[in-house]
Specification:
With 229 residues, the protein is α/β, with parallel strands linked by helices. The chain has eight helices and twelve strands. The chain has a five-stranded parallel β-sheet, sandwiched between helices. The chain has a four-stranded antiparallel β-sheet with strand order 6-7-8-9, with helices on one face. The protein is elongated, with a radius of gyration of 22 Å.
Length: 229
């Protein structure tokens, strides 16, 4: 079932949109502020976002801009503002469509279906299977460069991602800090191996339940690190 997020401050409108979309077999969630809507949009696994323009907290323009920086899912912007300048700005920030209130719920559903079908044609059916590394609750999507811990996505820097992936792909192998530095940073350590220690610490903070007793990345004292399976 496709998942849709509605970010709309008017509860009656949001509930009406939700009812019509659910009748068309969509799973729908609602947020009423820009701040919460942005947070949910970035953290959740949604297939399309219906985004109001005038929102408390962060406005729809900023929400759209920040979602588009990280995700490529369809964004349908809705607003009572009829000015072309607002429509041009919204589309320029990455919205896929702009609907002016009032509109019929059936038209909204039709547009949602059209955008999702188009998105599926572009990236769905022809998309190759992603290269996945999965170990004890950690899922590393090498193709999309995304990491999930117990199905919750966590954000990693480029080097954190590369280091975690390398260790996970070579489980139970002990690597020295020098070896890891050469592998990930592609250069000799030259006294810079503290960089590895810092990155291991940051990775542990994101994947370990208790960093004092790591279950994934073990420290082998006097030698280096090992990803335990």
């Amino acid at each position: 079932m496709s998942k849709i997020l509605i970010v709309e401050d008017e509860e009656a409108i949001a509930d009406l949109e939700k009812d019509y979309l659910e009748l068309s077999d969509f799973e729908v969630e609602i947020e009423h502020s820009g701040d919460r809507g942005l947070e949910r949009a970035l953290a959740g696994d949604f297939d399309l976002i219906i985004l109001d323009l005038m929102l408390p907290g962060i406005d729809g323009f900023e929400v759209c801009k920040r979602i588009r920086e990280e995700k490529n899912i369809p964004i349908l912007m809705v607003s009572a503002k009829k000015d072309d300048i607002d429509k041009i700005r919204g589309l320029g920030l990455g919205a896929d469509d702009y609907m002016t209130k009032p509109f019929s719920p059936s038209e909204l559903v039709a547009r949602v279906k059209a955008h999702m079908a188009r998105y599926d044609r572009l990236v769905g059916s022809n998309q190759k299977t992603n290269d996945i590394v999965e170990i004890r609750g950690i899922r590393i999507d090498k193709t999309a460069r995304r990491v999930y811990i117990d199905n919750e996505e966590r954000t990693f820097t480029t080097k954190e991602f590369d280091l975690l992936t390398f260790l996970a792909e070579n489980p139970n192998h002990v690597f020295t800090k020098e070896e890891l530095f050469r592998e990930i940073w592609d250069m000799d350590s030259i006294g810079d191996i503290a960089t590895v220690t810092v990155h291991i610490k940051k990775i542990r903070e994101k994947i370990e339940f208790d960093t004092a007793k790591p279950q994934y990345i073990e420290t082998i004292w006097g030698v280096g690190y090992r990803f335990k399976v």
